[in-house]
Design goal:
Order of helices and strands: HEHHHEEHHEEHHEEEEHEEHEHH
Oligomer: single chain
Low-confidence stretches: 102-124
Length: 286
């Protein structure tokens, strides 16, 4: 049975300590998952098409720990232990829940799932930030899933170009072993190598079999591949992508794609809130 977000508080805190006090979301989720006695089916249970239920609950565990002052995240998405977090070996979930807890439920989303809502009287800037982030992610994810397949391929092409790839082309051929396009990556302005990519716009998880099929189509054409999806990857798929002795395949899941679109400003605009400060001492010198 999957642990709740409150039951994941201490595993998350301990995993971050084991990783040296800082970690990316992928590293942190992987470390927590390794220490949980869960079946592959439980780990891969989908939540909303772009996240598994476990990933979703881990995200809320991070949110609660951040609101409780144990961890914080940088603008680059790296989670870090605060001095308070370094000093504590464990937290008491009930105490954390007194600050930020599920008092009632938000209206269900279109897929029937529910999002925990924080008690208004206990709202903190960190929690508000997290809830707002969840909102834009859901909206953007829905937009991506509504795209036609060829439009999603063109979007991936644009993302790769904006990320430094050159000569990016979408093949759009059927029966091509799942290869949707190719591009070149240049290293240090001197060396370049081809990368084949595949675009998967759907809900659910990419399996290890899909990764193997894609690698098979790469044989003799490129030594590195890239799979971009709006969904997630199973643990077996992640292992298969980096299997020893086989051409490596980089994986970009739905969460990473959303972050990249935001970073590149593709279809996402960030509005800064103006803050007006009054400086009384200035007037004294008039």
């Amino acid at each position: 049975m999957l642990p709740t977000h409150l039951e994941l508080l201490n595993p998350t805190l301990q995993a971050l300590k084991k990783l040296g006090g800082s970690a990316s979301i992928a590293e942190l989720d992987e470390e927590v998952t390794k220490n949980l006695r869960l079946s592959e089916e439980e780990i891969a249970t989908p939540h909303d098409g772009r996240q598994t239920k476990l990933e979703y609950r881990l995200a809320w565990a991070r949110t609660y720990l951040k609101a409780y002052g144990q961890i914080e995240n940088s603008s680059r998405g790296i989670w870090i232990l605060t001095p308070k977090g370094k000093a504590n070996e464990r937290v008491e979930p009930k105490e954390v829940a007194q600050l930020v807890r599920t008092h009632r439920k938000k209206p269900t989303q279109s897929n029937g799932s529910e999002i925990p809502q924080i008690i208004e009287s206990n709202d903190t800037p960190e929690v508000i930030e997290a809830v707002l982030a969840q909102t834009w992610r859901e909206k953007l994810s829905d937009v991506l899933l509504a795209l036609k397949p060829d439009a999603f391929e063109r979007l991936c092409q644009r993302v790769l170009r904006e990320s430094g790839f050159t000569q990016v082309a979408v093949t759009g051929k059927s029966g091509d072993g799942g290869i949707d396009g190719f591009g070149f990556v240049k290293i240090g302005g001197l060396l370049s190598f081809p990368v084949l990519f595949q675009c998967k716009r759907y809900r659910g998880s990419v399996s290890s079999g899909m990764v193997r099929d894609f690698r098979g189509a790469m044989v003799g054409r490129a030594d590195r591949g890239l799979i971009i999806t709006t969904g997630t990857f199973t643990r077996d798929a992640k292992v298969e992508a980096t299997r020893d002795g086989a051409p490596p395949i980089d994986l970009v899941d739905g969460e990473q794609l959303l972050d990249k679109l935001k970073e590149l400003g593709l279809g996402v605009e960030i509005k800064m809130v103006e803050e007006v400060l009054i400086v009384p001492n200035w007037f004294k010198d008039i």
